Amino acid sequence: xxxxxxxxxxxxLLLMDCFLTSVSYRDIAAVLxxxxxxxxxxxxxxxxxxxxxxxxxxxLQHPHCxxxxxx
Length: 71
Fold this sequence. Notes:
By secondary structure, the protein is α/β, with parallel strands linked by helices. The chain is 42% helix and 11% strand. It contains 3 helices and 3 strands. Strands 1-2-3 form a 3-stranded parallel sheet, with no helix packed on it. The termini are far apart. The mean pLDDT is 90.
């Protein structure tokens, strides 16, 4: 199941130039909350949009989010 993927021990996620959509950012936000081992997330050169910003900001404020580097 998709939720099992979120729980894996991912420490770095590089998604530059991936044509991400608002649905993508919803899923990324879920990963930020569910995966406490993720320390680095790179999203450069994607159209994040207002919805994506809101989703990421909410996830970054969650107590389970342990991200150290966002780029």
